[in-house]
Amino acid sequence: MSSTLNIVIPCYNEHDALPLTIPVLKNILDGLKVSGKVSENSRVVLVDDGSKDDTWSIIKAASDTDGKTFSGVKLSRNGGTQKGLLAGTDAAVNIFGADFIISTDADLQDDIQTVEKMTDLFNSGTDVVYGVRNDRTADTGLKKLTAQGFYKLSRAMGIESVYNHSDYRMLSRRVCLHLLSYRESDVFIRNIVPKIGYRSDTVEYARLARNAGTTKYNFIKLFALAISGIVSSSLRPVRLIFGASALSALIGIAYFIAACATGYVKHSLISALWIVCAVITASIAIVGEYAGRAYIESKHRPNYFIEEIAGETNISEVKN
């Protein structure tokens, strides 16, 4: 018996992209069903992450037209891509009975044609498949710079992650359940999945041009995402503070000794003071970031609220 696949797509203000994305996803899913690689219960789960345009109307129309292929999950407000993915994963395994999911973006810049390769790997016993970009020609110069910088910084901070992997991945049901057991508010899925373990593999592809619309990530949002990923996954920044403080103290002592030897005590002390103040300020900011995140996590607030579900949900056997 074939396994049930749910393709999970977080959507935020995707009025332009969805009319092009929906038929592509249907053709791919229909092909997998005809070949017997996935069950007839397989579907696409479109998650409206609090869009301000008519994204939900488009999703609803798709589910009304073909409720066996398209289902919709409408969140009560925008929470970001990571929480949208969590909500879609939750619905896929706990409402629609998925045996495995494949997540990607609504713009289909991550080559959706590799879904079949991911499905084949799942059917051969693989629990996790990472979509890895081996060609970023379609990206802008700024996008390439920020993306490569993020991956390198993550590695420098001791974070276990897959280079050039974003949110295009395949997860088996048991990995999804483990992922959903993580309860932190500041969730960063691409850093969590490698920690879960199980048999994994990669599928490489060239990143494509966006099919329509504009990216929802500007530099500020990308920077915030990078900070979130680092702070939620590593304590190395805090440990680096100690090293920076020790180095600052040594520089201050060296300045003082040099000042005493040359007679320029006043100027050297001012320079040393600037260095010490800079280190202290940065230290307070970093520790404050961790303290603030810890305060938010201590509240144990829900990550999202589902306002509405569209599409058929009457699957006879929902697996536990």
CATH architectural label of the largest domain: Alpha-Beta Complex
How many angstroms does the end-to-end distance come to? 18 Å
CATH topology of the largest domain: Spore Coat Polysaccharide Biosynthesis Protein SpsA, Chain A
The CATH homologous superfamily of the largest domain: Spore Coat Polysaccharide Biosynthesis Protein SpsA, Chain A
The shape is elongated
Q: How many H/I helices?
A: 10
How many domains, in number, for the residues? 2
**Strands in their spatial order, largest beta sheet:** 7-5-6-4-1-2-3-8
Q: Count the strands? A: 8
What is the CA-atom radius of gyration, in angstroms? 24 Å
Mean pLDDT over the residues: 78
Order of helices and strands: EHEHEHEHEHEHHEHHHE
Uncertain runs with pLDDT below 50, 5 residues or more?
314-320
Largest sheet, if any? 8 strands, mixed
For this structure, what is the CATH class of the largest domain? Alpha Beta
Structural class: alpha/beta
